[in-house]
Design brief:
The chain is mainly beta and 174 residues long. Strand 5 and strand 6 form a beta hairpin. 0% of the residues lie in helices and 17% in strands.
């Protein structure tokens, strides 16, 4: 009968075990072992975008960062999203996954979030991510000339029926 010292065990994930060895070797930086029992470094795969690896185990780039390359070897490969933007999940693989943070919107229609702008007064974009100018919500009592306009104006009847503490429930505006 085999003893625990001589019993066969599958080489763990993140490593490879050359034939005849009992000690696993970590996959090289920038590669990961995704299966048990790899016999050589050749069985290790490149770390996918959104991740990095220094020892054969994949590590996600945290939320707010993206990493577009295969084979990243350190956390330094994770790139911070542009100012005023973040990702909606960890392990983002593309700058296209960076979206405007709440209270900011995308002033262009091309889907690029490289230049998120503060939401104009009279808009209500504090609870949402990834607001495009065409979807910019207007607060009650305000309006804008078109869906592409950032010229948000207060309605002339915005204060009709208002009290100091109750707001403007009878307003017929926006």
């Amino acid at each position: 009968a085999a003893t625990s010292a001589t019993a066969c065990a599958a080489c763990p994930m993140g490593s490879f075990c050359p034939p005849g060895t009992v000690v696993p070797s970590a996959c090289a930086p920038g590669t990961i072992g995704t299966r048990l029992g790899l016999p050589s470094q050749a069985g290790c795969e490149q770390t996918p975008p959104g991740f990095w690896s220094g020892d054969g185990t994949p590590v996600e780039c945290v939320r707010g960062f993206y990493q577009p390359q295969y084979g990243a070897t350190s956390q330094r490969a994770c790139i911070l999203c542009p100012e005023r933007s973040t990702t909606l999940r960890p392990a983002a693989a593309s700058k296209d996954e960076c979206v405007c943070k709440p209270y900011y919107y995308n002033p262009t229609m091309n889907g690029s979030y490289a230049d998120c702008a503060p939401c104009p007064v009279g808009t209500d974009c504090g609870a949402a991510h990834a607001i495009l100018i065409s979807d910019l919500p207007v607060s009650p009592g305000y309006w804008r000339p078109s869906e592409m306009s950032t010229d948000v104006r207060r309605c002339s009847d915005a204060s009709s029926g208002c009290t100091q503490h109750a707001g403007c429930p009878k307003s017929t505006s926006g």
